[in-house]
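Late entry, written up from scratch paper. The run itself happened at the end of the previous shift, but nothing got recorded in the book at the time, so transcribing now.
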Amino acid sequence: MEESRRTRTRYLTAVALLLGYSATVSCSTGSVGPAAPSPGLGSSGPPAPITSTPTPGTGETKPGIALTAVPRPDGSFDVTENLMLPTATDILPVQLPASGEHLPGMMARTTPRVTNLKLLADDQSVRLENTTLTAADYIPLTAAATRIQLTYRLSGSTVRALPLPSPSTRAAAAIRPLTAGTDSTLPTDLTVTGGLLNAVCPLMTETRCAVGDPPDLTIQPDIPAGKALVVLQLDLPR
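Output as recorded:
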């Protein structure tokens, strides 16, 4: 009886040692790794990679004009204008905003003037003979291009409100892309970065072209370039 118990103990000990050795070999060799989780019901494989598609932008990724005007305390504007054409051109017609004497909300003569004009054509700087504009003109490009960017200071296009007991920041101003004459059908987006109270497009059938309410007022997008003359009512920054 005692011999039988000893034999059974030795047998169980041998089995335990054998199982422990097998587990140790399996972990140390790395030949057997953790199993990948099974896909859920209805899964057809690993998820597709996430890709992002840029949103088309007028004047930047699709033909059109995008103008951004930053008002200054003196009534002038720092302007960035992006133009994208459907076909390349090697000469750029430019025109200033109209005088305010016949424009609603202004009715006073103005003398728009562009200074410090800079121009990029297909990301290449274009040397300009004259960086000041006081009338319509044509700017030759060194090579035909479809993407054009202009930066400049627009002054003389603003009529300030009559001073009240204290000087007022209220003003009216006319803006229009310099490049509006390249193609009158191009969709045009105009952005004023602050102080906008109202916007009127006198060349359009529906002349009020403001969207929303202050302080989140914007200008109607996709105005045809040939009609993209806008009279702004705004508070100038102090």
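Residues 1-9, 11-55 have pLDDT under 50 and may be disordered.
(Scratch paper discarded after transcription.)
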